[in-house]
Amino acid sequence: MSARYEAVIGLEVHAQLSTRSKMFCGCSAAFGGAPNTHVCPVCLGLPGALPVVNARAIEFAVRLGLATDCAIANRSIFARKNYFYPDCPKDYQISQFDTPLCSDGHLDVEAGAKRIRIKRIHVEEDAGKLLHVENADHSLVDMNRSGVPLVEIVSEPDIRTAREASEYLQKLRSLVRYLEICDGNMEEGSLRCDVNLSIRPEGSEILGVKTEVKNLNSFKQVEQAIEFEFQRQSKVLTEGGRVAQDTLLWDPAKGRASVMRSKEEAHDYRYFPEPDLRVLLVSEATVAGVRGALPELPAAKEARFVSQYRLPAYDAALLTSSRDIAQYYEDVVGAGADPKAASNWVMGEVMAWINERNSNIGVLSQRIAPSTLAEIISLQASGRLSSSAAKSVFTERAKRVEVTIHDQSGGSVSSVEVIVKELGLEQVSDTSAIEADARAVLDENPEEVARYLAGKEQLLQFFVGQLMKRTKGKANPKVATDAIKGLLDSKRAG
Amino acid sequence: MNLAALSIAETRKLIASGAVTPLDVCESALKQIEKRDGDVHAFLSVDHDAVRARAKKLTESPEVRSLSLAGVPVAIKDNMCIEGTRTTCGSKILGNYHPPYTATVVERLRDAGAVVIGKTNLDEFAMGSSTENSAFGPSRNPWDTSRAPGGSSGGSAAAVAAGMAAAALGSDTGGSIRQPASFCGVVGMKPTYGRVSRYGLVAFASSLDQIGPFTRSVEDMAIVLNVICGKDARDATSASEAVPDFTQGLDAGVKGLRIGVPFSFLGEHIDASVRASFEALLNALKRDGASVVEIDLPHAKHGLAAYYIIANAEASANLARFDGIRYGHRSSRAKTLDDVYMQTREEGFGREVKRRVLLGTYVLSAGYYDAYYLRAQQVRTLIIRDFASAYAACDVVLLPTAPTPAFKLGEKTEDPILMYLNDIFTIPVNLAGLPGISVPCGLSPDGLPIGAQLIGRAFDETTVLRAAAGIERVSNFRSMAA
Fold it and tell me: Are A267 and A348 members of one domain?
């Protein structure tokens, strides 16, 4: 039923800029703090106070504009967006309207196969936060967030599926983190997303009536909301109804959206140019300066990882999803590790370690420096460590350094070699020693030997397993296999 | 002797010589307020203890002899914030609001040694031309207390005229300094937009508002301007243009000055007494060696209409914050959030403010923006160009400040349009952002002051002041307080 329709989706993403001070005053823009402590007459909207533009916030927005191939306006205009709400102290928000700072850019998803056009990126101020007190006849308002700088990134309706939307959003988050302009934390609200969605019969070029879904606080909720709204609108049309141009509010607990306001109740924001601010001038020289200081962007880095390190596209995408992880990877390779082996390690052990602890690469690299990981990888490559032994060294090393870090007595950090020795993890490749153990394994399992000789050759792995167990995993797997196979062959021949 | 009636220049001499102290001057001002303000009602608040404490401290300060405004009692229009001092904007909606910060202009005056003598009455949120729109009752013209002092800065003009302060600050959005200066027979100036920081001035129409002084002489005007002009990092619209010493060159006279007069704009609606006084002034200026050239400001007649669109649009947003949520009056009848907004604003704002907020909201509404707001901005651009071409032929423009001398209280309160027409000659100056001054040039047959308005190129206050000093000389106007 729903297969007859396709979704037409545009996203409006608000990203809080991680400047030290607010958009139009000198107050701290940091998240949290005791309520109403990061405030002054300007961000409280007191009568007579005036806004002054934070140049750093403009620079951050230009970074994002350039990174998404937008045109940067040399002259852009701040505008007042008028609406009454208790979290909005002036009862208007300073935003941009018909002349945004950045316009006509794009962000590619699906490994470059799909282009999502970005209509505009503009700069504005955040509102305060209302705290609703249970069973009280009042609400509280915290103005710490009031005036924190935001960029709003508005896509064209080029997105068709929940997965595309989620990937676009993840790419965008990765980008703002690369650019070091936003921490990308959706739970704390530093990245927020509204979904505009309409549906139309597949193949049609005509846009349907769209709805807007608000209050989405995770990638998962964005996907769920899109699925929900697509199904809901499909049902309405299938049953011969009409989609109403409503604004909906997502309820994460119930997994459904309900109408917040209808078209008739929609605000007339009465935008007009903000007379307290002059036209925002951004010179070509400023733009060139920002462009020159841009870091290598995720897409370029991904392509370079494929060509320079001969990595599969999958590896390159995953490693470059975070600038810090990509840097760590390159440092490991730079310390002499094989690029593919290093990729496997970073995607595997390193990311698992971080995820299990909800930690980050910075913490890990204090425990396992890139050169340390390179050392472990080379021990494995030379055959001195089995893969499982190498993982044990990794884990142990991370643990010991952890101990040392908390140890105020200044105890030294244990080296990889010390751990290998202490744990007795060094792999045995000495053929004669392994042959002795192999002989013992075969002697202990005469029935299996007989079945093997009778043609059940899959039992080879059983013998190798027993041998590894007997050597506590230290036997070189290849030498061990060769030894078992050699002895069995000589039995068959004998 | 009322020391507050002396010129600032004289006061400075007396204080520098040690003949009088800041405390003497301020006691004089307080005494004059006691004597006159019962009739005039120029002040909304006077904190005697604070005035005396400040004046005493100044008197004991070793710096007092070197400060340019040491001990000078200055009145402040009650739409400028002073930390801890009640600020009303002439409205009920601010309730008992005490701002937690001080306006830049007030800081600058204090740094120069001035004493804030009190906060003055105004039309609510500076919306009006007679000070009759104050929620705290009208001020009266010291020359004739049955008449209006003009507005919206009527309290400040009256305070200076009646010798209750040596100088005062007002704000001028469409004539609110110059017109009351004309009505009260004092000098009032609106500097170039951006010359004086607006930080701490409760906004009426941000792109038009400008703070400026009232004084009893052009020289005093220059002295106060020297203190308050200049870039302020807290006001993004304040200008970085260098501030010259405005007291220099005041004696240069009008000889050789080209004075432009837009005769066709004067129209037929100006009072006979104003016309007679204006023509006498032109002749006197010519005798003094100025040349009078006819100029054309073809779009100035549309200024009033454009102004009431732009100013009201900006006001509708600027006054939105008075909503009963965070400070000021909150309706006790409100049951829901929307009630809080609507009842509070219904109870807290006066008729004129509501009228303007409604008009301003309307002209910005979807579907009307282009026809009103955008068109008005286009008119504004044309008026700016009119002045620019006029200055190719003249150095300064001369107009009457207002079409009539002071009118009777209540005479125009029932007809808003009639009231708005008072500002027909002053509004184009705000739209163009230019410096304008009103300087007394004579008396009407009824003995009421009449003002002449000089308008200069942007940031050319110097020429405006020089010409104003010239008018002051030829007019031989006697200040009421002196």
Answer: no
| Cβ–Cβ gap A49/B200 under 8 Å | yes
Co-location of A238 and A166 in the same domain: yes
A255 and A270 share one domain:
yes
A117 and A221 share a domain? yes
Q: What's the CA gap between B304 and B403, in Å, rounded? A: 14
What does the DSSP assignment read for A24-74?
SSSSB--S--STT-S--TTTTT-TT------HHHHHHHHHHHHHTTPEEPS
pLDDT-above-70 percentage for chain A: 96
CATH of the domain at B91: 3.90.1300.10
In a domain, B466, yes or no: no
Confidence of residue A412 (pLDDT cuts 50, 70, 90): low
- As averages over each run of 10 residues, the pLDDT of chain B (482 residues) reads 93 93 97 97 97 96 90 98 97 96 98 98 98 98 98 98 98 98 98 98 98 98 98 98 97 96 88 96 96 97 97 98 94 93 97 98 95 97 98 98 97 89 96 98 96 98 98 88 64
The string of pLDDT tens digits covering residues A15-47 is: 999 999 999 999 999 998 999 999 999 999 999
Residue A405 pLDDT exceeds 90: no
Element (H, E) at B439: strand B436-443
Q: Which residues of B touch A49 (CB under 8 A)?
A: 101, 199-200
Beta bridge partners of A10: A196
CATH of the domain at A480: 1.10.10.410
CA-closest candidate to residue A313, choices A327, A295, A325, A301: A301
- DSSP code of residue B201: B
Q: Tell me, what's the ipTM?
A: 0.96
Is residue A352 located within the same domain as residue A405? yes
Res A396 pLDDT > 90: no
Give the pLDDT mean for A479-488: 88
B246-262 burial code (b ≥16 CB/10 A, e <16): bbeebebbbeebebbbb
Assess A279–B contact: CB distance below 8 Å, yes or no: no
Give a yes or no: residue B54 inside a domain. Answer: yes
Cis bond upstream, residue A234 (ω within 30):
no
For residue A292, the SS3 value is helix
From the CA of A274, how many Å to the nearest CA of chain B?
9
The yes-or-no verdict on residue A403 having pLDDT over 70 is no
Closest Cα in chain A to B361: A270
Residues A477 and A341 in one domain: no
The pLDDT value recorded for residue A385 is 83
How far away is chain A from the Cα of B397, in angstroms, using its nearest Cα? 27
* Inter-chain CB proximity B320 and A44 less than 8 Å: no
Same domain flag for A284 and A360: no
For residue B236, list chain A residues with Cβ-Cβ distance below 8 A. 50-53, 276-278
DSSP symbols for B244-279: --TTTTGGG-STT-EEEE-HHHH-S-S-HHHHHHHH
Domain that holds residue A464: 431-493
Query: Is the domain of A130 the same as that of A200?
Result: yes
First to last CA, chain B: 10
| Model confidence band, residue A1 (pLDDT cutoffs 50, 70, 90) | very low
Residues of B in contact with A50 (CB under 8 A): 198-199, 234-237
Number of domains in chain B: 1
Q: Is A266 on the interface with B (CB under 8 A)?
A: no
Confidence class for position A474, pLDDT limits 50, 70, 90: confident
Contact B97, B86 (CB under 8 A): yes
For A209-225, b where at least 16 C-beta lie within 10 A, e where not — what string? bbbbbbbbbebebbbbb
Residue B156: domain span: 3-256
What distance in Å separates residue A52's CA from the closest CA in chain B? Answer: 6
Residue B23 contacts by C-beta under 8 Å, 6 or more apart in sequence?
B52, B55, B56, B58, B59, B71
